[in-house]
Design brief:
Blueprint lengths: L2 E7 H12 L11 H12 L3 E10 L4 H13 L3 E6 L7 H13 L3 E7 L3 H13 L3 E6 L14 E4 L39
Parallel strand pairs: 1-2, 1-4, 2-3, 4-5, 5-6
Length: 195
Amino acid sequence: MGRHVLVWDAPNVDMTLANIIEGKPTAHERPDMSVLAQWLVDHADGDAVEACVFVNVAPHVAGPMRGWVVWLLEQGFRVFAKPKHEESDVDDDIVDHLEARHAEGDLAAVYLGSNDARAFVEPLTDLIDDGVVVTVLGFAEYAGSLASLDGARFVDLETIEGMFAEALPRITLESLPEEGRWFEPRGRLGEPAGS
């Protein structure tokens, strides 16, 4: 028995999703966090679970984001909110939280929702070396070395049933079906990209 901790890097997941859909994601296009909560509880097998969402709040989105934060709290998530100034980020706060939970001595499993290999490969490797079970939740084509981190399990967010209302327009060549797959054009022949 031990604690299972999810840390969700909301700015990174949102930015990656924006790259996939080529625009700012709407509520309908974002992952369903209630589905993620149930998935996490199912994978904890009765162990204690803590789910934390980390957000970096720019002044112009503080009002609209409040409703989402309240909803997350009602769903059982803890939320760490930090004001966004210039290059501020929540990566160090995520690492600090994981290190604090590990220092308590009962950390059995960590689930990281992020595609930021630069920020998280080293701290996750340290946890793996200490016997913590690590699962990375992200998008395979954007997760870099997090998708193949030695000793960790990688779960592509789109493979969690119900996480997204509809299939994302992804160009994933790493996991093609044996029979192949068509990719449809996003532009018109003969016209410059973005017209």
